[in-house]
Amino acid sequence: MDFGFSPRASELQDRIRSFMDQHVLPAEAVYDRQLAEADDPHALPPVMAGLKEKARAEGLWNLFMAHGDWGAGLTNLEYAPLMELAGRSIIGPEVFNCSAPDTGNMELLALYGTPEQQERWLRPLLDAEIRSCFAMTEPEVASSDARNIRTRITRDGDSYVVNGRKWYTSGILDPDCELIILMGKTDPQAPTYRQQSMLLIPRDTPGITILRDLPMFGYTDRLGHGDVLFEDVRVPVANILGGEGEGFALAQGRLGPGRMHYAMRAVGFAERALQLMCERVTARTAFGGPLADRGVVREWIARSRIEIEQLRLLVLKSAWLMDTVGNAAARMEVAAIKVAALDVAHKVVDRAVQAHGAAGVSDDTVLARLYAITRALRIADGPDEVHLRTVARQELDKYATTRPTTGAA
To answer: Where do the Acyl-CoA dehydrogenase/oxidase N-terminal domain residues begin and end (predicted)?
Structure first.
């Protein structure tokens, strides 16, 4: 394995690090204040618009996109440390037009969209002229198993008609959201993994009702997490993405890189939390000495550093495998990093919260928000249990020929 970075990747790391330190991290408080003062909590704060313009002018834009001539053309291994650096701030990925759900949606359009679909949706997304959302999860079924999805996509002449309910449709409340990529069933009688399809739905199509904006551990996200009702929503047949019955395969193609991006960001979350913890315990005195001199605190710091280093190596290995043998061959590693990344990040954030005491559960630092995010992401994009199932299945497959055929323990 070669985890060495190309000259271009190293140069981009230096530029992203500098940009984060000089522009993004100092803007966090301004971003929060502008959101709090805005009439619409989902509107783009002016400071973010300025950061985006600056990042684009410096060529730090669409770094995630590796397909065709659409983006920077970086490998996963080159991109991984960049997203770690951006992940040190909750607002970081959006600055570089590398934030979910747009990244996954843009990859879908780049890989499977027709030239007409790409011209209408992909180009404005790459230019950050519009935003998008992804409607898959449903409130009435266990959506971690895509076979349970109930939303129907019915062919009617030259149109598809959609009926169903989706929730945690992240991004739909952003005023700039103009595209919904929806996953539903076109043929419930087809083979199990050929029942689902993906449809491109303009946000302003009649029949779409946002029932409520769902919080995440009490936090309202700027992009919004919509509980959305689709009633006789009609779009042209040309709006199918890929083709009928290809929804499940497309979803798997979207989720692989998406999980990689989550893991990359999680390393950044953990690094930020560890930095805050070290700064806090160095500056605070209790029971006759600095908190940093307490054995338990030093153990927190040491374990956090060890776990972050282990996680980073696993992420880089997974990125390297995706680049060299492909997403399918790296399936176990990609599943593993989704579990490991949020587990490590959540542990480190939890220790940092404890080190901060009351300040850790307040809004005076980013830690409470990171605590909520790292916990929620153990469910989003496939819960831990689904990924553990994948890892265990592939591990057990190695022993399939020697496994007892009867009830041996």
So the answer is: 9-128
Q: CA geometry: angle at 366 spanning 360 and 370, to 5°?
A: 90
CATH superfamily, with its number, for domain 248-398? Butyryl-CoA Dehydrogenase, subunit A, domain 3 (1.20.140.10)
SS3 408: coil
| DSSP character string of 2-14 | --PPPHHHHHHHH
CB 169 within 8 A of CB 203: no
Q: What ranges do the domains of the chain cover?
A: 7-113, 131-241, 248-398
Predicted confidence (pLDDT) per residue in 298-356, tens digit: 999 999 999 999 999 999 999 999 999 988 889 999 999 999 999 999 999 999 999 99
Q: How many angstroms separate the CA atoms of 14 and 3, rounded?
A: 17
* Backbone region of residue 313 per phi and psi (left: phi > 0; alpha: psi in -120 to 50; beta: other values): alpha
Task: Give the architecture-level CATH label for domain 7-113.
Answer: Orthogonal Bundle (1.10)
Please report, for residues 137, 150, 246, the alpha-carbon distance to residue 187 in angstroms, rounded to integers and kept in the order given.
18, 11, 11
- φ, ψ (nearest 5 deg) of residue 120: -75, -40
pTM to 2 decimals?
0.93
Contacts of 112 (CB under 8 A, 6+ apart): 241, 242, 246, 250, 253
